[in-house]
Amino acid sequence: MATRKITIDVVSDVVCPWCFLGRKRLEAALAMVPDVEAEVRWRPFQLDPTLPPQGKDRQTYMRDKFGTGGKIDDIHKQLTQLGEENGIVFDFDAIARAPNTLDAHRVIHWAAQAAPDTQDRMVGMLFSLYFEQGQDIGDHEVLVDAAASVGMDAEVVARLLQSEADKATIREEIDTASRIGVRGVPCFIIDQKYAVMGAQTADVLADAIRQTAEGFEPGISEDR
């Protein structure tokens, strides 16, 4: 069977644990459809663009957002279990900062210009640094080191981060996502035709990819 080519635009924020799960499940889904060649492109979204550039203490931030009851613990427990099922070792206790992700999205944007797979590896690196290692992915030194680890020019990235380069571009992309109806992440836009909302299972994603590649409209649940 001839290989069919499609694009998958993933609207995501690198401080969204569901997006980390979504990336792992997308990897599994693509392995289930070897006759489909997918170009995965990561698109920016900010769960909280109001965070200051230096971020906030995460414990305080989460308490302000979810309250002081057991809701946070319940969410973390659920995500930890789902992470184990998908090859992710969430370490929420290690996360000290709730970062503003604008600069992280700029680095992801630049990674797409480096090499075909560099952007995806950069996204995976940032997810792991934040959720598994507790590093502050709003910190420029962390971002530069991450960029270097995936083969980007560290000096260029460091210089660009000190400038306003592509901040307007990232904000415009986020505004565009909102205009087309993206209200939560992850959102998988397949071949610029169909949207799969939420961290769906690999089976659901694979079916959507397969049906889109074959020219059918997939029926997709919006539940996580």
Automatic annotation (TrEMBL):
Annotated GO molecular function terms are: oxidoreductase activity
What are the residue boundaries of the DSBA-like thioredoxin domain, all occurrences included?
A: 7-209
Q: Which CDD domains match?
A: DsbA_FrnE
**What domain of life does the native source organism fall in?**
Bacteria
Q: What is this protein called?
A: DSBA oxidoreductase
